[in-house]
Amino acid sequence: MKEKIETFMAEVRARNTYEPEFIQAVQEVAETVIPFISSQEIYNGKNILLRMIEPERVITFRISWVDDHGEIHVNRGYRIQMNSAIGPYKGGLRFHPTVNLSILKFLAFEQVFKNSLTTLPMGGGKGGSDFDPKGKSDAEIMRFCHNFMAELYRHIGSNTDVPAGDIGVGSREIGFLFGMYRKIRNEFTGVLTGKGLSWGGSLIRPEATGYGIVYFAENMLTTKKDSIKGKIISISGSGNVAQYAAEKVIQLGGKVVTISDSSGYIYDENGIDLEKLKYVMHLKNVVRGRINEYVKKYPSATFFEGETPWNTPCDIALPCATQNELNGKDAKALIKNGCICISEGANMPSTPEAIAEFHKAKILFAPGKASNAGGVATSGLEMTQNSLRYNWTRKEVDQKLQQIMSSIHASCLEYGMDDTGYVDYVKGANIAGFVKVADAMLAQGVI
Ligand code: NDP
Ligand code: 2IT
């Protein structure tokens, strides 16, 4: 089996030489899915995984825009349309200087499995730009978003490809993008998700990813007859996912002691309560400031410059910033300090070495493609409401989100539990996500 996986990965590496993050994401899937394929007559010998790692379409384009001082800038835009076997391409847009083909292909690849797990009919895609929103004025962000959509509109549509937010793309950016799409196409459709409530958005979508990872953690803890209540939680990031993960943890009686951004992390031994969280949301979403300002407001907290929060003692860790932000050393530190559960909010935040440590220690570990799927699932619910031209209540959407997270958890158990009762959630999520897409691809023939 090892040789089979290695032969496959040699081909992946040869075809995608300069794409380390994409190769990392494929390797994780290959290690769990190739043994499954070999054991199943219907998938064996169909080169199905080889077909799944090749995007259906990759689009790159130029975005030229003028800053507030009249200077002209050029950025690169992308949309990776990875797989549409079970529904229109669906996935976020990331605006960050580190964006490149490797990052977006890994994200699009993971999205295919994640969207399949949600139980909703969505294919997988991802896009974005190497544009850096930090320090830009609202007017600059608007001009950039408008110019980005002036090209992207050709490639998307409510039945073709439905983008949403990701790092650097929140409600402000979705508004500017939607405005330009509506103007060019002269139609009001659900072509983007994460829209404002008065123009086609869904209740709970802003909260959904963060709430979802906490619901997933609660599902995992229930298998051990345990719960979030009374637990100490370490969170990284302070953006959309981190903020609402913190809110749900606090609501369920847990204590959040860390949050971070790319400059470092803050540790608040007394816990970040709802009032402090409100301050963080204002700081990050309105003022667009840095997380170290938290310690000026709450002097009992400490700021650790240039560090990640994984060395502080906690029961549960929720990595909610970015890929590869938690390495093998961090995993060892977490385990040593008593951490019993990791529910990933970010996409691929744990390195392969970190995941190996979690599995070795047999603690609860959920990969992002399962635990952070609540965001895209609620995007799917936004699409449904757009098609119905109707809005569900907050309670209705939240209930559907909770049902979906429980169903994803059940799928992970179905394919990930071994004879001893131990659940490998990575294996479970990869195989369950694979089966639905592979069955659709087989039914549709070789295209
Ligand atoms: P935001 O842009 O709202 O926030 C991102 C946060 O992560 C910020 O605190 C940011 O700090 C930090 N961060 C970003 N890049 C780095 C880096 N290289 N090193 C350290 N910290 C970094 O994004 P989201 O909260 O939406 O996304 C966070 C993660 O969750 C991403 O991995 C995303 O793919 C994933 N995700 C998001 C979903 C959604 O619905 N939004 C759904 C599923 C997954 P700083 O401000 O300093 O850059
Ligand atoms: O990574 C993700 O799942 C997202 N950024 C959300 C995608 C979506 O379409 O809502």
Can you put this structure into words, describing what you see?
49% of the residues lie in helices and 15% in strands. The protein has 3 domains: 51 residues, no CATH class; 132 residues, Leucine Dehydrogenase, chain A, domain 1 (Rossmann fold, 3-Layer(aba) Sandwich), CATH 3.40.50.10860; 164 residues, 3-Layer(aba) Sandwich (Rossmann fold), CATH 3.40.50. The protein is α/β, with parallel strands linked by helices and 447 residues long. Strand 3, helix 4 and strand 4 form a beta-alpha-beta unit. The model has no long low-confidence stretch (mean pLDDT 97). The structure holds NADPH dihydro-nicotinamide-adenine-dinucleotide phosphate and (2Z)-2-iminopentanedioic acid. The site of NADPH dihydro-nicotinamide-adenine-dinucleotide phosphate has 24 residues, from helix 8. (2Z)-2-iminopentanedioic acid (2IT) binds next to strand 3, helix 4 and helix 14.
